[in-house]
Amino acid sequence: MQLYASKKRKLMISGLLFVGMILSFFDRVAINVGIIPIADEFQLNTSQTGFLISIFFVSYSLMQPLGGWMTDKYGARVMVTVSLFSWSLFTVMSGFAWSFMSLLFIRFLFGLGEGPFYPASMSTIRDNFPEKERGRANSFFLSAQNIGGILGTALAASMVVAFGWRGMFTIAGILGILVSFGIWFILKPHGNQVVKKDKPKQKKVALKLLFKIENIWKLITFKFISNIINYGLITWMPIYLVKEKGVDLISAGGYWQSLIFLVS
Question: Each residue of 123-134: pLDDT tens digit?
Answer without folding.
Answer: 999 888 888 888
